């Protein structure tokens, strides 16, 4: 369930909002005059979201390439390339 607070809470209860973000691992939605205005979240939560977005962007590119008929690498080719990178060749 989303955590919703008035924006004045940010000024008056900054530590409480920070604790909520960290303990719940959820963003806190701040409102102004009953309307959504800002979202506050922990750095950890933000990094997770950013990583997820990057993954979805890469998957979208791969799907577009597959739809265009482009051939990808086989599993064995990927493993070979990873091993070469790992061993510095």
Query: How many extended strands?
Result: 3
Note the run of SSEs as H and E: EHHEEHH
What Rg is obtained from the alpha carbons, in whole angstroms? 21 Å
Helix content class: 55-70%
Determine the N-to-C terminus distance.
50 Å
Indicate the proportion of strand residues: 15-25%
Going across the major beta sheet, what is the strand order?
Answer: 1-2-3
Number of helical segments?
A: 4
Largest sheet: 3 strands, mixed
Structural class, from secondary structure content? alpha+beta
What is the average per-residue confidence, as pLDDT, rounded to a whole number?
94
How would the blueprint of this fold be written?
Blueprint: E1 3-6, H1 8-12, H2 14-24, E2 28-32, E3 35-40, H3 43-67, H4 75-86
């Amino acid at each position: 369930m989303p955590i919703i607070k008035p924006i004045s809470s940010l000024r008056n209860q900054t530590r409480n909002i920070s604790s909520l973000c960290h303990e719940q691992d959820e963003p806190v939605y701040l409102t102004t005059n009953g309307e959504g205005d800002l979202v506050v979240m922990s750095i950890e939560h933000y990094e997770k979201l950013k990583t997820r977005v990057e993954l979805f962007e890469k998957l979208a590119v791969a799907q577009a390439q597959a739809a265009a008929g482009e051939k990808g690498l086989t599993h064995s080719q990927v493993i070979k390339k990873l091993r070469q990178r790992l061993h510095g060749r």
